[in-house]
Specification:
The protein is built from 24 helices and 19 strands. It has 667 residues and is an alpha+beta fold. The longest helix is centred in the C-terminal third of the chain and has 20 residues. Helix 9 packs antiparallel against helix 10 and helix 17 packs antiparallel against helix 18. It has 4 domains: 156 residues, Glutaredoxin (3-Layer(aba) Sandwich), CATH 3.40.30.10; 325 residues, Alpha/alpha barrel (Glycosyltransferase), CATH 1.50.10.10; 74 residues, no CATH class; 76 residues. It starts with 9 loop residues before the first helix and ends with a helix. The protein is globular, with a radius of gyration of 26 Å. The strands form 5 sheets. Strands 8, 9, 12, 13, 14 and 15 form a 6-stranded antiparallel sheet that branches. Strands 1-3-2-4-5 form a 5-stranded mixed sheet, sandwiched between helices. The protein has a 4-stranded mixed sheet with strand order 17-16-18-19, with helices on both faces.
Length: 667
């Protein structure tokens, strides 16, 4: 065994039997590299990553490759989900050096953590188009031992480039940025299959969320039409598990048919919110069904008994990607009667040759992905077949479960469940969100600090900016649907903690972490598979400043977005979570404050009011039951303050009057 056996990360534990002498990221590893005068081979991945598995089986389990690695390097394994700050830093390096990135991420660097080589997956042997590990190790070892000056010169260039990347500039957000973002989506829109690229295609929930916010703000039908077409295509595509529910990570083709089969908690969380919002706007029952199915999948496969959400399910089982999810023609013929089989063949275009295309050979391999031709909402025959296929599928070897529980991803899940509970009028979803908060309170909050990871009874790893911001984001959403002030107080507490820990008072913006074991301190800005942490921090500062009428948070929000405004103006499609929040700022963030001292009869009125308020969800309301200095009750009755841009209308305790005011503002 190498040095990974005492780790908690499922990804690191997958490599404990490798003949590679792996270290975890530690000072011990770097000290050993200095002592032996060897470079570091850093491999970053995650437990449900298909190509990470491929490289592990081909190279890290290969004794010849392992011996070469052990001779040439000190080897370090990092779980990107446990250390997003390390991953962010060296992914930036990889993108700078190669123009691309991905996992497994391969970095070779000096004992002082200064990189001089970057890449992703490498096979064992070289081909005309890609160097193999055997040749790569020899080449890098020769460079280190014989051309040290060239190597050091390269590292200095990269470090200088990293420092330049970390520099911030302040600009004003363009008044045309919303329209420019919308027109960019129109120009990239796939009119045939939905989405905004050819292949691969990712769900990119925050892009769809922005377009819905844009539609609600402008009424432009093209915005909502692009969203609904894309949501329909994904829900009816191979990217969605039609039998067991839930979304796979992304589609490798343009048609949403052939997925990479891992299922990530953060995708389910964000897509629950997106489909919930779409259901609220369109009342399309298919979107409601999608939300219910995704929550069912999470509840069945990804929830700890006490409420926290596990990270992911693997793409692979039995050593192959997708084995758990695909079907042979003969297998379906055996399982189903003639009517059912004919139905499945027609509905899903099942063939003997198979519709599943091997990514390497680009040929069919006799297996089929269930990808329906049309909506199966309320189709009783399909539901009967689906349940039988699900039972049969459970007899197979299941994909591996990454059962670590991460604070940041669970923050996204809290937000998604809260929004789903509100849009679908389902209190059980709101309760699930509350249960996750209880889980985090029990296991991941200690002495007013957050921790990043919980697994098998152990909590650990100091929380990053992502943990604080995403958790606060979830708490804000939960507060708005529950009216329970304890969630607001907790959101305010950790929002302020995030500012103290990570806010750059000099150049503004939030640092990703305060870890002292990194080459440079980084901030993020670009929205990827999950929103930028700084974008969520902007959202939180903005929302909380309006809920509490706190000018300091509002200034921080403005400074946060001005830091990225230049890049956002030039490429708004990459900043859609920022823009979705900025829509609210641009609209003046209308806020309704309701004083707290209520009688039972008044609470009945509030419940009635809340029901009416939901009709106005297309406006960016915040509703609060908050006793704050300046918000007083009139004659001990529930009193309403309608505020806009920090200016409030005359307060009233007349329920009909506040409804009339709402109607006059938005009709």
């Amino acid at each position: 065994m190498n040095r990974l056996s005492e780790e908690s990360s499922p990804y690191l534990l997958q490599h404990t039997d490798n003949p590679v002498h792996w270290y975890a990221w530690s000072e011990e590893a770097f000290e050993e590299a200095k002592k032996q005068d060897k470079p570091i081979f850093l491999s970053i991945g995650y437990s449900t990553c298909h190509w990470c598995h491929v490289m592990a089986h081909e190279s890290f389990e290969n004794s010849v490759v392992a011996n070469l690695m052990n001779e040439a390097f000190i080897n370090i394994k990092v779980d990107r989900e446990e250390r997003p700050d390390i991953d962010q830093l060296y992914m930036t390096v990889c993108q700078m050096m190669t123009g691309a990135g991905g996992w497994p991420l391969t970095i070779v660097m000096t004992p002082d953590k200064e990189p001089f080589f970057a890449g992703t997956y490498f096979p064992v042997n070289s081909s005309p188009h890609r160097i193999g590990m055997k040749d790569l190790i020899v080449s890098l070892s020769e460079a280190w031992n014989e051309k040290r000056g060239v190597v050091i010169n390269e590292t200095q260039k990269i470090v200088r480039s990293l420092q330049l990347v970390s520099k911030d500039s302040c600009e004003e957000v363009s008044k045309d940025v919303f329209d420019n973002a919308f027109h960019a989506f129109v120009s990239h829109y796939d009119k045939e299959y939905g989405g905004f690229s050819k292949a691969p295609k990712f769900p990119s929930s925050h892009q769809l969320d922005f377009l819905m916010a844009y539609y609600q703000s402008t009424g432009k039908e093209d915005a909502i039409n692009m969203v609904t077409h894309t949501l329909d295509a994904m829900f009816l595509g191979g990217i969605y598990d039609q039998v067991g529910y839930g979304f796979h990570r992304y589609s490798t083709d343009q048609e949403w048919h052939l997925p990479h089969f891992e299922k990530m908690l953060y995708d389910q969380a964000q897509l629950i919110m997106t489909y919930s919002t779409a259901y609220h706007i369109t009342k399309n029952k298919q979107y409601k069904d999608c939300v219910n199915q995704c929550v069912s999948y999470i509840s069945e496969r990804l929830l700890h008994s006490e409420g926290g959400g596990f990270s992911a399910e693997d793409a692979d089982s039995e050593g192959e990607e997708g084995t758990f999810y695909i079907w042979k023609y003969s297998e379906l013929e055996r399982l189903l009667n003639k009517e059912e089989f004919d139905y499945v063949v027609k509905t899903f275009k099942i063939t003997k040759e198979g519709n599943f295309i091997d990514e390497g050979s680009r040929k069919t391999i006799g297996e089929n992905i269930l990808n329906p031709e049309y909506s199966l909402v309320d189709d009783k025959l399909w539901e009967s077949i689906r349940q039988r296929l699900k039972v049969e599928r459970e007899k197979r070897v299941a994909p591996g479960l990454d059962d670590k529980i991460l604070t940041d991803w669970n923050g996204l899940l809290i937000a998604g469940l809260a929004k789903a509970g509100q849009a679908l009028n389902n209190d059980s979803y709101i309760q699930k969100a509350k249960d996750i908060v209880l889980f985090i309170e029990k296991y991941l909050e200690k002495n007013d600090k957050l921790y990043h990871r919980f697994r098998e009874g152990k909590s650990g790893i100091e929380a990053t900016m992502f943990d604080y911001h995403f958790y606060v984001y979830g708490l804000i959403e939960l507060y708005q649907v529950s009216n329970n002030e304890r969630y607001l107080k907790k959101a305010l507490k950790y929002n302020e903690a995030a500012a103290k820990l990570f806010w750059d008072t000099d150049k503004k913006g939030y640092f990703i972490s305060q870890s002292k074991d990194l080459l440079v301190k980084q901030k993020d800005s670009y929205d990827g598979a999950i929103p930028a942490g700084n974008a969520v921090g902007f959202f939180n500062d903005l929302k909380l400043s309006h809920i509490t009428h706190d000018a300091e948070r509002f200034v921080r929000a403005k400074e946060g977005i001005e830091r990225v405004a230049g890049d956002m103006n030039r490429y708004p499609m990459g900043y859609t979570f920022w823009l979705k929040a900025y829509v609210d700022l641009n609209n003046g963030l209308p806020t309704l404050v309701i004083t707290e001292d209520l009688t039972i009869d008044q609470q009945v009125e509030i419940d009635k009011f809340t029901g009416i308020l939901i009709q106005y969800m297309n406006t960016p309301y915040l509703k609060t039951v908050l006793t704050t200095k300046g918000f007083k009750s009139i004659n001990d009755q529930a009193t309403f303050y309608y505020c806009h841009n920090f200016v409030c209308e005359k307060p009233t305790s007349d329920f009909d009057q506040i409804i009339s005011l709402l109607e006059s503002k938005h009709h």
